[in-house]
Amino acid sequence: MAFAVLSHRRGRRRPAPAALWLPGLAVVIVTLLPFWYLWKRSTERGWSAWDETLSRSATELLANSAKLSLGVAVICVAVALPAAWLTVRTDLPFRRAWSVLLALPLAIPSYVMGMTVVAALGPKGMLQGWLEPLGVDRLPEIYGYWGALLTLGAVSFPYVYLVLRAALRTLDPFEEEASRSLGRGPWSTFAAVSVPALIPAIAAGLLLVALYVLSDFGGVATLKYNTFTRAIFIEYSSSFDRTGAAILGVVLAGLAALLLAGELFARSRYQARARAKRLSPARPIALGRWRWPAVAFLAAVVAISLVLPMGVLVYWLVKGIRAGADFPEVWEPLRHSATMAASGGVVTVLLALPIALLAARFGGPLARLLEQAAFATHALPGLVVALALVFFGIGYATELYQTTWMLLVAYVILFLPNALGALRAPLMRQSPHLEEAAAGLGRRPLAAIASITLPLARPGAVAAFALVFLTIMKELPATLLLSPPGYRTLPGVVWSNSSEALYGGAALPALILVGVAAVPLVLLVWRGDLDAVES
Amino acid sequence: MPFLNRSLLLALAVGLVSLFAIACGGDDDDDDTTPTAADGTTTAAATATATTATATATQPATTKLTVYSGRAESLVGPLIADFEKATGVDVDVKYGDTAELAALLIEEGSKSPADVYFAQDAGALGAVQEAGLLATLPEGTMTKVTATYRSKENTWVGVSGRARVIVYNTDELADAKVPNSIKDLTKPEWKGKVGWAPTNGSFQAAVTAIRVLEGDAAAKAWLEAMKANDVKEYKDNRSIVSAVAAGEISLGLVNHYYLYGFLKDQGDGFKARNHFTAANDAGSLVNVAGVGIVKSGKNAANAQKFVDFLLAKEAQEYFSTQTFEYPLVTGIAADSRLKPLAEIDPPNIDLSSLDDLQGTVALLRSTGVLP
Amino acid sequence: MPSKAESLRVDALEVRFGGVRAVDGASLSVAEGEIVALLGPSGCGKTTLLRTVAGFERAWGGEIRLGGELIESARVSVPPHRRDAGLVFQEYALFPHKTVAANIAYGLPRGGDRSVRVRELLALGGLEGFEDRYPHQLSGGQQQRVAVLRSLAPRPRVLLLDEPFSNLDPGLRVEMRDQVARLLRAEGVSAVLVTHDRTDAMALADRVAVMEAGKILQVGTPAALYFEPVSERVAGLAGEVQFLDGTVEDGTVETALGPLRPLGTPAAGSCRVLVRPEWVIPCMGGGAPARIVSSRMEGQHVRYRIRVRGGAELAMTTASGLPLPPDDEITVRVHVPVPVFPAGS
Question: How far is CA B312 from CA B20, B83, B290, C166, in A?
Answer without folding.
Answer: 42, 11, 14, 90
